Q: What sequence folds into this?
């Protein structure tokens, strides 16, 4: 087979697998097999830039960086929707539209997806552009980011119109949202509050590679354009589905407002079973001819109506406020409520976030408060019923000392959270940190669970993670639920963890803001714990993607005597505190202190390999050219604006071959 055909066949095959996986939810090959094929295609494309295709499945991983999103005027305006909240509202609407059109009216009922609206333009079956709603007249071009969302087809199937827009909503399903939050909590960051804001924030990230890692989905609901060859809304949804779009199957045709209400009532209850969030339903006149006759008001179509579910809200009494201490020492205030039923569950606690929140709402113990379960997972207090406030009520005084160890709390400027700084002496921090140390992505210690860690700490058997390595079977056997076998497993699991590579050890240490990715970066750059522990903030911020916040936290960590002692002990016990010889063999310092920008398509190696080579040899890759850039490595099709910028700043532009010479 000719190379070109081979490339195209692979693209087609991968596209189909993407479709099976992300649209049909029925993969036919393993992730591993998929990755092999993708890699193959990447290699071929790198060798043959002449067959470049902006819609190749390889571009799903992102990489393009957008500094400023370009404003694009919508060819067809993106309207808002009118809202209704009751049967009466819907009947009024029906009355109004019946006056304006002849004949029976059928309605399409759809879920109202709660995310960020998006307009996708397709031409000849290719995704041309993705634009946010903006003010409805014009939005931001976020194509590079949207391309990384796997349920957005880059090429269409079947018999599609030559050119059209399709509108939808980019959502973050609960599963993915929760996973993202678990990871954030693990590294000591505050979790994201709700999927909607996280989804719309994702679209505005500058680095599309970051977007590609977010489990976003795109759900479509509206075709816009001329000569679309459909005459009803329900049919247009079907068509979109045929062309490869993700159009949820819940949409239903209703013959009357009563049937619309049945749909509403059904989903008001069952929406909690959906994988993503909905805040209501949307009713649309099904017949497109009738839609056209009805037209638009100044802000919304007359032919559609949103029906908002009632935000589930109850009132209850605030009995007390307790304060939790997290693994990083962050204090979270929690409201203890008189138990009350909300959205099908009994609620006893609500999140209060931080001191500012309590002050803003002036929440006091014994207040009657309104609790709402909106987009958030944990219910929150949204207001106080001041009419019911006891006469002798006093404003809440936020704690000034750690509720566990009584150390004076600190609050860094610009941060909302208070912290207990007693890193090594505060029980929940000690337990939390060891639990993090043994967790799956860190040291992955088999045979040891979170509860056992708490037991070991509470019994005084361990006080930090280095103590684990001195535990004996004799010590653990008397613990609750321990038997001969499980004690063996535990001791053995701890021993096994001495094999875990340095970058994971670094993550396991639980340095604030040092998550998996940052740990990898730091390990690669500094190569050993000694080098890292002697570094400075200035040096750290020079490492790619390491910001001030992380740098400070790292330096802070290593400046503690106690941490120094713990790390020395870990070393003694044989924990990997530097990159292995194998990894080091591929590393040099040849590019130390040099900063590179990579642009264009390369022949010998892929862009990602090139970046890796730069980093492995001590160089830094950055995304935009500045006077600090040492070289621009230019491949085929280098961006013209990059070229001008490099020339004006006198930054040398070198070829792939020149670069390979630099490191050979
Ligand atoms: P609002 O933002 O409350 O004015 O609601 C209008 C928005 O609802 C539109 O801009 C769409 O992005 C969004 N929406 C979500 N699901 C649908 C749907 N099935 N049909 C139409 N619009 C929808
Ligand atoms: Zn404390």
A:
């Amino acid at each position: 087979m000719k190379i070109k055909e081979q490339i195209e066949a692979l693209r087609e095959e991968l596209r189909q697998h993407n479709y099976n996986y992300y649209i049909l939810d029925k993969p036919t090959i393993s992730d591993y097999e998929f990755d092999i094929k993708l890699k193959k295609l990447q290699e071929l494309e790198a060798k043959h830039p002449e067959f470049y295709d902006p819609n190749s499945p390889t571009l799903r991983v992102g990489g393009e960086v957008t500094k400023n999103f370009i404003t694009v005027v919508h060819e067809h305006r993106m309207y808002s929707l009118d809202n209704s909240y009751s049967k009466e509202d819907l009947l009024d609407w029906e009355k109004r539209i019946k006056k304006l059109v002849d004949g029976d009216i059928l309605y399409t009922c759809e879920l109202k997806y709660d995310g960020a609206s998006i307009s996708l333009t397709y031409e000849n079956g290719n995704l041309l552009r993705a634009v946010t709603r903006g003010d409805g007249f014009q939005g931001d071009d976020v194509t590079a980011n949207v391309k990384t969302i796997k349920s957005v087809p880059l090429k269409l199937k079947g018999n599609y119109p030559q050119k059209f827009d399709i509108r939808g909503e980019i959502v973050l399903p609960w599963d993915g949202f929760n996973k993202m939050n678990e990871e954030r909590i693990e590294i000591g960051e505050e979790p994201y509050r709700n999927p909607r804001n996280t989804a719309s924030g994702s679209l505005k990230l500058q680095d599309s590679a970051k977007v590609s890692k977010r489990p976003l989905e795109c759900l479509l609901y509206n075709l816009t354009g001329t000569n679309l060859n459909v005459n009803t809304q329900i049919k247009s949804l079907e068509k979109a589905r045929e062309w490869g779009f993700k159009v949820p199957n819940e949409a239903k045709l209703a013959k009357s407002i009563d049937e619309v209400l049945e749909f509403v009532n059904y989903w008001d209850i069952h929406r909690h079973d959906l994988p993503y969030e909905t805040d209501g339903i949307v009713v649309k006149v099904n017949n497109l001819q009738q839609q056209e006759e009805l037209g638009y008001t100044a802000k919304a179509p007359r032919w559609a109506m949103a029906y908002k579910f009632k935000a589930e809200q109850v009132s209850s009494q605030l009995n007390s406020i307790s304060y939790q201490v997290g693994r990083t020492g962050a204090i979270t205030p929690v409201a203890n409520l008189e138990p009350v039923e909300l959205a099908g569950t009994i609620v006893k606690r609500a999140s209060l976030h931080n001191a500012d929140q309590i002050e803003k709402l002036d929440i006091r113990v014994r207040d009657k408060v309104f609790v709402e379960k909106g987009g958030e997972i944990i219910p929150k207090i949204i207001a106080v019923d001041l009419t019911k406030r006891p006469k002798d009520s006093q404003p809440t005084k936020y704690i000034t000392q750690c509720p566990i160890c009584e150390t004076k709390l600190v609050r860094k400027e610009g941060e909302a959270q208070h912290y207990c700084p007693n890193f090594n002496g505060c029980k929940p921090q000690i337990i939390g940190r060891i639990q993090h140390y043994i967790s799956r992505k860190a040291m992955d210690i088999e045979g040891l669970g979170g509860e056992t860690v708490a037991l070991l700490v509470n019994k005084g058997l361990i006080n930090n993670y280095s103590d684990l390595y001195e535990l004996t079977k004799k010590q653990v056997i008397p613990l609750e639920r321990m038997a001969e076998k499980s004690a063996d497993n535990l001791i053995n699991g701890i021993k096994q963890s001495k094999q875990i590579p340095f970058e994971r050890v670094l993550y396991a240490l639980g340095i604030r803001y040092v998550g998996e990715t940052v740990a990898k970066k730091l390990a690669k750059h500094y190569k050993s714990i000694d080098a890292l522990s002697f570094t400075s903030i200035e040096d750290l911020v020079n490492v790619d993607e390491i910001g001030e916040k992380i740098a400070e936290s790292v330096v802070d960590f290593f400046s503690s005597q106690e941490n120094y002692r713990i790390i020395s002990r870990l070393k003694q016990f044989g924990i990997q505190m530097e990159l292995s010889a194998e990894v080091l063999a591929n590393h040099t310092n040849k590019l130390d202190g040099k900063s590179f920008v990579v642009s264009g398509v390369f022949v010998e190696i892929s862009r990602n390999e090139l970046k890796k080579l730069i980093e492995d040899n001590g160089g830094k890759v950055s995304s935009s050219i500045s006077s600090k850039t040492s070289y621009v490595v230019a491949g085929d099709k280098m961006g013209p604006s990059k070229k001008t910028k490099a020339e004006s700043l006198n930054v040398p532009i070198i070829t792939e071959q020149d670069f390979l010479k630099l490191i050979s």
